[in-house]
Amino acid sequence: MSDANPLVLTGVELVDGSSTDLAIARGRFVDVADAPGDAQRIDASGLLALPGLVDLHTHLREPGKEDAETVETGTRAAARGGYTAVFAMPNLDPTTDTAEAAQYVAELGLRDGHCEVVPIGAVTKGREGAELAELGLMAAQGVRVFSDDGACVHDSLIMRRALTYLKPYDGVVAQHAQDPRLAGPSACCHEGEVSGRLGLPGWPSVAESTIIARDVQLAEFTGGRYHACHISTAESVDVIRWAKKRGRAQVTAEVTPHHLLLDTPHVETYDTTFKVNPPLRPSEHIEALREALADGTIDIVGTDHAPHTVQDKDHPFDVASPGMLGLEESLAVVMEVMVHSGRLDWAGVADRMSAAPARIGRLAHQGRPVAVGEPANLVLVDRSRRAMVDRARSASKARNNPYHGLDLPDPVELTMWAGKVTFRR
After folding, report:
1. Which of 385, 394, 390, 395 has its CA nearest to residue 406?
2. Could you give the CA distance from residue 403 to residue 331 in angstroms, rounded to a whole number?
3. What is the C-alpha to C-alpha distance for residues 326 and 402, in angstroms, rounded to an integer?
4. How far apart (Å, rounded) are the C-alpha atoms in residues 106 and 66?
5. Helix runs in 316-403, H state only
6. Is the CB of residue 54 less than 8 Å from the CB of residue 304?
7. Is the sign of the CA dihedral 52, 370, 299, 274 positive or negative?
8. Which residues are catalytic?
9. What is the mean pLDDT of each successive set of 10 residues along the chain, which is 425 residues long?
10. What is the pTM of this model?
11. How many Å apart are CA 225 and CA 324, to the nearest integer?
């Protein structure tokens, strides 16, 4: 990471279509007239300034699986993708289910991070779904997002207790919605014609939507905050839309870039790069997800960046580790399927990928407008550049990149976190 030297970015375009010069000093945007005389000047004509992106759903793998990713490599990939903050999921070794474990993840971020690293606490001990983790102690330390991601909080009483317990702390339960009776550990392909033809264990869409339907009613009943992770089905969209229309529950939802772009036929080669949980879905589900992100039913884009080693993926499809890289191409995918189609404008991108995830995670200093007095977290976007995705060029330690070989936007010109340039092309 470079030092936080004063900068002046000239000719920057903002999301409202206006152009301006931006000055950065002491970690904040300042009036250009107040910029130090020795400030470096960068011509940013034609580049769009967005607030630094925030990912509510990142797997950094450290501690416990450093052969797949580390905080250093994962946050370097995040900076390359325009992110200035990531929330680190707790499926680590040891699990982030104690205040000490959460503090350790935060310290790793301070030591090695190329963006802010915010620990997510587990809902249950060991993510085993049987007994609540140290929610209060973690919350007292500042943790606000709790999840057993990779496993579903399937016990309705445990979910009720978690929502109730976290309410005074303004915490949110982020659910991996997967009914284990309808979609067990071997489920790996959307249940339908493709799964039947390939002989792969089916993952039916109702295994997701029925859990979310239960949970949003528990959120309404308890008054707790609930977030649906990586929703992938049209039925789940319907449930979230219903809950929001009622207006009685604090409910938010996310979609991943891969569920916005990639569909079930990608698994027909048995390429385990395309094994992910929840699985890729047919086109009608993708269309419902895009529509819901556009109209605000889905609040945010969460990458679910899930690095794996070659060895973890080098197995038969039904036993290979599920997960895909996402941090570096997330903005590119959103541009391709949402901006270029006219479904989302740049103000909408700033909301879904920065302001809203920061708000859900209660990260008050992120997701802020690019304006004088605000923290200098931003990404400069070149809206015209495209490139062929090459997994070998990833800043991540892993290579399970589902976008390899695709022609996509290559938008990130510069990323700045708290006034420090963390990526520059």
Report:
1. 390
2. 13
3. 8
4. 16
5. 330-334, 346-350, 356-360
6. no
7. negative
8. 304
9. 78 95 96 90 96 98 98 98 98 98 98 98 98 98 98 98 98 98 97 97 98 98 98 98 97 98 97 98 98 98 98 97 98 98 98 98 98 97 98 97 98 98 97
10. 0.97
11. 27
